[in-house]
Amino acid sequence: MFDFFKKRFKKQPDHLPAFWATYLALFEDRFAKNCSFRDFRFVVFDTETTGFDLKNDRVCQIGAVAVQNNTIQLRDFFDTLVYQDTGGGSKVKEIHGLRDKTIQTGMDEKKAVEAFIQYLGNAVIVAHHAAFDIGMINQSLKRHFGPGFKLKNKFLDTAHLEKRLKPLSAYAVENPADYALDILAGKYGIDLHDRHTAIGDAFITALLFLKIVARLEKRGVMTIGSLIA
Predict the structure, then answer these.
(1) Alpha-carbon distances, residue 40 vs 6, 32, 68 (angstroms)
(2) In angstroms, rounded to a whole number, what is the distance separating the alpha carbons of residues 150 and 117?
(3) What is the Cα–Cα distance from 179 to 158, expressed in whole angstroms?
(4) Domain coordinates of the chain in residue numbers?
């Protein structure tokens, strides 16, 4: 039992990097669940990686765009290659199209993840199949700064939001393929321009997010608390 509390309330290191201390301070105010979600800044992001193993693979590109007041803020974006020795195996490279020579021109991984945290701030994260992208960023933080460093932001997964629009009966069989980004983009008439680039996928996901949220809003989802619920 005591081990649980030790893990749950693990202290941050005594000497925090300046960027991390600034980041943590942004979460000192209580999260206002009853406020309109239109008032919040969302950061829709995506990563391209060397593979799909959270422990052993690496981030090679991060792309993000902000959404606020139901509008994509085109001037508020983040886009960087992240230096790695390789972009991954041949099958992965077929997906993201990043050559080793291209990856090797990227920003140092430690600096890249620090820059992304500074860009992110206390925004609500949005991603498609968010657990993977958040997990990859957390692994980068852990690798370069230590086990106590993890994203603190609230987050939304566009696949899960779409599922809320389609309640399943007790006898329905859910097909995960129905919630793939390509499938949902086609459903909502979203162009797949720059697919499988981090910034391109972030923009596609942002458009998808706005489409889904508009439908949820018609169903009475008005506050950030009800959106995240």
Answers:
(1) 32, 10, 6
(2) 10
(3) 9
(4) 31-228
Q: Are strands 124-127 and 42-49 parallel, antiparallel or unpaired?
A: parallel
Could you tell me the pTM of the whole model?
A: 0.90
- The strand pair at 124-127 and 71-81 is best described as unpaired
Look at the block and give the residue holding tokens 């949220």.
213
- Topology of domain 31-228 in CATH is Nucleotidyltransferase; domain 5 (3.30.420)
DSSP-assigned letters across all residues of the chain:
-HHHHHHHTPPPPSS--HHHHHHHHTT-SPP-TTSBGGGS-EEEEEEEES-S-TTT--EEEEEEEEEETTEEEEEEEEEEEB--S---SHHHHHHH---HHHHTTSBPHHHHHHHHHHHHTTPEEEETTHHHHHHHHHHHHHHHH-TT------EEEHHHHHHHTSPPPTT----GGGG-HHHHHHHTT---TTTTSHHHHHHHHHHHHHHHHHHHHHTT--BHHHHH-
pLDDT digit string, tens, across residues 2-34: 444 344 435 555 689 999 999 999 999 989 999
